[in-house]
Amino acid sequence: MAELNKGDEPMDATPNVSEVDASGAAATESAAVEAIEAPVERGEPILQVRNLVKHFPLTQGIVLKRQIGAVKAVDGISFDLYQGETLGIVGESGCGKSTVAKLLMLLEKATAGEVYYKGQDITRLSGRALKAVRRNIQMVFQDPYTSLNPRMTVGDIIGEPYEIHPEAAPKGDRRRKVQDLLDVVGLNPEYINRYPHQFSGGQRQRIGIARGLALNPEIIICDEPVSALDVSVQAQVINLMEKLQDEFNLSYLFIAHDLSIVRHISDRVGVMYLGKMAEIGTDQQIYDHPTHPYTQALLSAVPVPDPEAREGRERIILTGDVPSPANPPSGCRFRTRCWKAQDKCSTEVPLLAVPERFKGADTPAAHESACHFAEEKDVVHAA
Ligand SMILES: Nc1ncnc2c1ncn2[C@@H]1O[C@H](COP(=O)(O)OP(=O)(O)OP(=O)(O)O)[C@@H](O)[C@H]1O
Ligand code: SF4
Ligand SMILES: [Mg+2]
């Protein structure tokens, strides 16, 4: 990707999202937790997500509301985020990515499950303890147009977290801190009194990142942080995020639709489908050795510019729509669209685990995949 060019972005950033979706099938419950194996070379996990569930109630009636069901937005997800790594999360629209982000940010209350931050379950915290944890987990949002208050100056926007956490910067020191942050994200510190509309899309996303950094967090949850940006600007913002990660030893959870961007920035990648994690592994395992049929279908749909690489590639066309999360299929959630589905797939939920056939084998296919019939398939890889 192109090197970051400080401050030279085009002034109008056209929304341009690469609509490559991802998802995968089921995985669940306590067995999934046991199945999570720390990659050998990694340090301590900073976040451990265990059987996380978020069901939004579906109600009927205007005066006397009664619950008639639930949207199972996130339905038993487990994964680890390691110190200093980037974990990419891909999944098609509505599969639950933003809900996971909100649960980790404690903006939504989990229906069930735990989120351990340095070993402490933060879903049960309140008051001061909760506030202290919140300082360490910050978020960068998708749309820099709507996530910044147009009536506030950039200085006030970036410095706002200090109002909630005054201990992070004494009042007299805040202006200097905000100017330092502007400098860190590649913006002129003299812009401190400008308003969001005076910046380009990429510059606005830099402001969002500066705000995310204000409290010196350890984890940043990035929900589609570059999806609304022009392709050329995406590269600059990604470069900046990578630079900041090294500088501040940040751990990123990076949610996106674009498989190529996720591969570029991520150390590991998780593929979600209908509220579940289908497959998770290193970027090489997922992109070059996917074993879950859904991941394979997604990768086969990525446009490949090289005609030689295109030749002989198998294109997997998925049929049918994504089922409703209010009424997901039994067994494997992907079965209604899976070309390999068998009887077992409708009765048994496949757990997210290293497939039996690959256990102990020295192969990149030996990573967690929630499929009863997980196997490698030669699909063309996203660059
Ligand atoms: N507050 C809510 N009340 C009811 N249903 C909700 C709520 N928030 C999300 N959902 C539903 O939960 C499911 C997951 O939504 P979520 O926003 O997490 O998906 P997503 O993967 O982030 O999608 P996108 O890629 O479009 O951003 C969707 O079916 C959505 O309609
Ligand atoms: S083969 Fe069965 S378990 Fe595997 S993804 Fe397809 S439907 Fe799910
Ligand atoms: Mg979302």
TrEMBL record:
Residue span of region Disordered: 1-24
GO biological process: peptide transport; transmembrane transport
Name listed for the protein in its UniProt record: Dipeptide ABC transporter ATP-binding protein
One example GO MF annotation: ATP hydrolysis activity
Swiss-Prot/TrEMBL keywords: ATP-binding, Nucleotide-binding, Transport
Any Pfam family matching the protein: oligo_HPY
Family per similarity comment: Belongs to the ABC transporter superfamily.
NCBIfam families, per database record: oligo_HPY, PRK11308.1
Gene3D superfamilies found in the cross-reference section: P-loop containing nucleotide triphosphate hydrolases
Ranges for domain ABC transporter: 47-299
